[in-house]
Amino acid sequence: MGRQPCCDKFGVKKGPWTAEEDKKLVNFILTHGQCCWRAVPKLAGLRRCGKSCRLRWTNYLRPDLKRGLLNEAEEQLVIDLHARLGNRWSKIAARLPGRTDNEIKNHWNTHIKKKLIKMGIDPVTHEPLHKQANPEAAPCKNIKYDGDQQEIPNNNYAQASSFSSDSSSTTLTESSEPVSDDDPLMSYILSNTFLEDSTWDFHFPVMREEYCEFGMSSSEGIGDDYFGLGRFNDVDLSALDMSNKH
DNA sequence: AAACTCGACAACCGCCTGTGC
DNA sequence: CGCACAGGCGGTTGTCGAGTT
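Output (structure tokens, whole complex):
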């Protein structure tokens, strides 16, 4: 007997979420917190798969999410982390407050990848593309983060004269240097100390400043508000524009 | 103005991992 | 140890708006 599907395939709605569905899901999580995702759709009155609910929450409805394009610093951090971690988007996302793995993955595939290729850098190996002709010159192929690995591949971004792909895109010229390990902060962020430090788990980032913006003390923002749900307390859900942009 | 193309991103799918029994 | 299950992850697809022809 095969494994049961994560949800009943029949009667399960697919496709873009409606504002009504979003509202139901948010209301449910506000009331009950994140419990068993499999049970969420039934309890929340949604005809959705539990997985779909979890994804919708983590990628779109979570109150601590940043919206909009990644800024220059974030983009550079993504590149550096990708060089170190590979396609481990969730690990990368954990280092970018308010960003989701899906968002970073999309941004990588639609923006960064193209920029790197234009710069002559292989987005997979982070090695110069012309080196790829020589298999021995691609030491980062199938790069794996083993926890002890500290080295970042050659800083090809510093060698590239410009990070610009077009006039509107981010540029990394002298005025916005590629982040290097010389920068103490970036050095720490990219270090294994940081990477392994659970106290910096940004998956549900609770940034004190952000909570202050919502009139909450920093202590209120942690603990019971682990998921940032506290922010919804003063928000009229009906006023939230949670409708899918599509 | 209509048809077509492309880019961005939300969402789905299938596999993997961790956990409890 | 093996099995079943839920949750998580990464790859891929689908959808829609903007831009172009």
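Chain A has a mean pLDDT of 62.
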